[in-house]
């Protein structure tokens, strides 16, 4: 009996592309360069075709009707940019890779360079460089830099970076106060007063927590098929009234097999086109009442607008819930944390109620205290 033939070792190995290195050598050697830039008193030469291929701004500036450089001897002046930043941007244009100064973990200028490059990338419509800078700055936010980074995010349309900054402000007690005392915040007050207003609105926000206990879990999945839901009785949080909509088998056909939760602003709180800005998070709770880190949905640090359609989505896959240890006596609990920004009216409690339907019971924990700015309370009731 013959064994299976062994595969012969490869005789040809394809090396990684050398294109980035070759183009960087071309830039540094200045061979074939046909355009000169003057930046902060320093001169940089480059190749118009490469710049135009990478940036629509360079395309218009170098080849458009109003081209700034028609001959190799002409100079294009670049204002409001440091020479080292322009040089780093050129290297990225040629190689599609971070300059060595930014990659080096020992570099003291790493974060500062990323901030300057983000501004340059937005100016020359270099989308990948801009997103790369955003991603790096998201990973380096601290109390010293967050105000400056948030201002950059606001001025240059970086939504993900702005959200990361707000997440940082609300992550630990004292972060917001420390930032408001920083030099970067003073600059923000002058350059972005609307952003300061947004921060102050969130600082005076009113918060509440709502705990839902679902009994008869297996019964519920049998009674309510995909698209079927149970709606809670109104509860108060942040001066507004809310409901939570629970879908035992998902909200839509693509969510079958999942548990979906949606937070809904009650209609009478959204009359005449009025809207509410709020942050929210819906979390599965373990048996000790602690949120499960991998099982939560929400708006993150940036408030979203209510009313309209409920805000939420798929929370946890049913088969995962059944094995993760969060089910107890055929029931589980979720918590909804709500923070309404601005100056909502004082919250009031509603009457305690419970609902039972075919072995499925949706209960809520008793109210504990009236909500006040920067405090939390629990108030809950349910109905079909």
Automatic annotation (TrEMBL):
InterPro entries for the chain: BACK_BPM_SPOP, BPM1-6, BTB/POZ_dom, MATH/TRAF_dom, SKP1/BTB/POZ_sf, TRAF-like
Gene3D superfamilies in the cross-refs:
1.25.40.420, Apoptosis, Tumor Necrosis Factor Receptor Associated Protein 2, Chain A, Potassium Channel Kv1.1, Chain A
Q: Region Disordered: which residues?
A: 359-384
Q: Which GO terms describe its biological process?
A: protein ubiquitination
User: What Pfam families does the record tag this protein with?
Assistant: BACK_BPM_SPOP (PF24570), BTB (PF00651), MATH_2 (PF22486)
Q: In which pathway does it act?
A: Protein modification; protein ubiquitination
Domain (MATH) ranges: 207-338
What domain of life does the native source organism fall in? Answer: Eukaryota
Q: Which residues form the BTB domain?
A: 33-97
Question: Per the similarity annotation, which family is this?
Answer: Belongs to the Tdpoz family.
The record's PANTHER family line, in alphabetical order, gives: BTB/POZ AND MATH DOMAIN-CONTAINING PROTEIN 1, OS11G0619800 PROTEIN
| Protein name as it appears in the record | BTB domain-containing protein
Give the organism, scientific name.
Lolium multiflorum
């Amino acid at each position: 009996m013959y064994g299976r033939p062994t595969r012969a070792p490869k005789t040809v190995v394809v090396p990684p592309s050398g294109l980035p290195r070759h183009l960087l050598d071309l830039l540094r050697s200045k061979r074939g360069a046909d355009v000169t830039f003057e930046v902060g008193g320093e001169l940089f030469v480059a190749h118009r075709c490469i710049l135009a291929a990478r940036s629509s701004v360079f395309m218009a500036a170098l080849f458009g009707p109003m081209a700034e450089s028609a001959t190799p001897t002409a100079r294009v002046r670049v204002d409001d940019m440091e020479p080292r930043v322009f040089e780093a941007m050129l290297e990225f244009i040629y190689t599609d890779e971070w300059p060595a100064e930014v990659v080096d973990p020992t570099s003291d200028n790493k974060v500062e360079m990323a901030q300057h490059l983000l501004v340059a990338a937005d100016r020359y419509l270099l989308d990948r460089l801009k997103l790369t800078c955003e991603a790096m700055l998201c990973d380096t936010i601290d109390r010293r830099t967050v105000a400056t980074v948030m201002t950059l995010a606001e001025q240059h349309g970086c939504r993900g970076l702005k959200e990361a900054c707000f997440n940082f402000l609300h992550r630990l007690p004292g972060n917001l106060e420390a930032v408001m005392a920083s030099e970067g915040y003073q600059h923000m007050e002058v350059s972005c007063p609307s952003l300061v207003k947004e921060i102050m609105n969130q600082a005076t926000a009113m918060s509440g927590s709502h705990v839902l206990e679902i009994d008869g879990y297996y019964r519920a999945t049998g009674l309510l098929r995909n698209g079927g839901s149970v709606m809670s009785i109104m509860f108060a949080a942040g001066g507004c009234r809310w409901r939570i909509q629970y879908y035992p088998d998902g909200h839509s056909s693509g969510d079958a097999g999942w548990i979906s939760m949606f937070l809904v602003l009650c209609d009478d709180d959204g009359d005449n086109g009025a809207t509410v800005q709020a942050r929210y998070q819906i979390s599965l709770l373990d048996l000790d009442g602690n949120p499960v880190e991998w099982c939560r949905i929400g708006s993150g640090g940036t408030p979203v607008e209510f009313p309209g359609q409920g805000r939420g989505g798929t929370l946890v896959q049913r088969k995962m819930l059944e094995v993760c240890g969060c089910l107890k006596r055929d029931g589980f609990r979720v918590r909804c944390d709500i923070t309404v920004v601005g100056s909502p009216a004082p919250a009031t409690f509603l009457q305690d109620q419970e609902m039972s339907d075919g072995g499925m019971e949706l209960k809520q924990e008793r109210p504990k205290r009236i909500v006040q700015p920067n405090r939390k309370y629990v108030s809950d009731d349910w109905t079909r």
